[in-house]
Write a structure and sequence with these properties.
Radius of gyration: 33 Å
Helix content: 40-55%
Distance between the termini: 80 Å
Low-confidence stretches: none
C-alpha cells in the first residue's frame, strides 16, 4: 500500500488503528552512509585511547572500584542484591571504552581480571555472588543425578568408599581371568 504525499495523517501525525503504516513517511529515514559523514573524532572512542597497557587499564578499573568509599559500598550492595558479576564487569569495561580510556580490544582483554576481582570483593564480604546473567541451572546432588541415570551406580560408589575406608574387605579377584574369546570357545561356539 502506497502512502500518498497529501495524506492528512502525515500532517497531523494521527495513526489509524486499522492501518499501522498510516502516517509513516517512507522517505523519512537515514540515507545509507549518513553515519560516515559526521565529523571524525567527535566521540571519545574515535580518539586515541588514554590507556594503552592492559595492566594499567586493570589497575585503573580496580582503583575506580575501591578508592571511593561510596562506589565500593554500592558495588558490594549490587553484588549482595544479586546483580551478576558478569554484568558488572561488562558495564565497567564498556564505560571505560565509551569514555575513551581504552580501546574495544583492551576492554575485552581486561574483563576476566575485573571479573575475578569482583568475585574476590564479594567473597571478602561473605557474599556468594551470582556469576552470570540469565537462567541458572538447577543444582542437584551428584548422587541424585546418578540415581536417575543408573540406580546401581551410587551403591557401587558407596561400597567402594567403604572398602577404601577399611569397613568392608574388598572382593577377591578370581585367580584365573579368562579372555573373552576363551569363554566363547568353552560354550562350543566358534
Amino acid at each position: 500500500m502506497a502512502i500518498k504525499r497529501n495524506d492528512p495523517t502525515l500532517e497531523t501525525g494521527n495513526v489509524s488503528s486499522t492501518n499501522p503504516t498510516a502516517g509513516v513517511d517512507p522517505v523519512d529515514r537515514a540515507i545509507p552512509g549518513q553515519s560516515l559523514t559526521d565529523e571524525p573524532g567527535k566521540w571519545n572512542w574515535e580518539k586515541p585511547a588514554t590507556i594503552e597497557a592492559p595492566q594499567e587499564a586493570i589497575d585503573f578499573a580496580i582503583n575506580r572500584l575501591t578508592n571511593d568509599e561510596d562506589t565500593y559500598k554500592r558495588t558490594i550492595e549490587l553484588l549482595a542484591s544479586g546483580v551478576a558479576v558478569e554484568a558488572m564487569t561488562k558495564t565497567l569495561a564498556f564505560t571505560m571504552f565509551m569514555e575513551g580510556m581504552i580501546t574495544a580490544d583492551l576492554a575485552e582483554i581486561i574483563q576476566p581480571y575485573i571479573f575475578f576481582f569482583l568475585m574476590g570483593m564479594a567473597r571478602d564480604q561473605g557474599i556468594t555472588p551470582l556469576l552470570f546473567s540469565g537462567p541458572q541451572p538447577m543444582k542437584k546432588p551428584v548422587f541424585n543425578m546418578m540415581n536417575e541415570v543408573s540406580p546401581t551406580e551410587p551403591e557401587k560408589l558407596q561400597k567402594q568408599s567403604r572398602e577404601l575406608e577399611g569397613e568392608v574387605e574388598p572382593e577377591k579377584m578370581p585367580e584365573k581371568v579368562q579372555a573373552f574369546m576363551d569363554l566363547k570357545n568353552e560354550r562350543g561356539v566358534e
